[in-house]
Specification:
By secondary structure, this protein is mostly helical. It is built from four helices and no strands.
Length: 155
Amino acid sequence: MSNVTTKSKSPRMSYIPGLSKLPKGYRPSASEKFMSVRQKAYFREKLLYWRSEIISETRGTLQTLHEDSEQHADLADRATSETDRAIELRARDRQRKLIAKIDAALERIEEGSYGFCEETGEPIGLKRLDARPIATMSLEAQERHEKRERVYRDD
């Protein structure tokens, strides 16, 4: 199990399915110490897998956009194609930002601050992290943050 604690040189290392050091079917539980070596390994793998899926989708999209850059005889077809292309590029931009958040989460795992609320320092909670592994705030802190945002936005 000592291999799990080995630090990588970069959080951007690629994910290779099937090389998990965790027991098959492992899920973090409250009965373990919060952010134990196993839990960190679980979230690292989850984040790396998510990142690799996004990159794979992006490559496919870029290839499709490149192949679909044909001329359209009909103006309506061209407008539809351009609209589809713009939507796809916006989606890829959101995914680029998501990759940055994933990389930041991987960095927090390496430095030991992953899983703890950046506002309160309290544990975020395993269910929240499992659902949103890039979370940086506990549910309560996130709700307070969103309430403050709404108040300032309404002014």
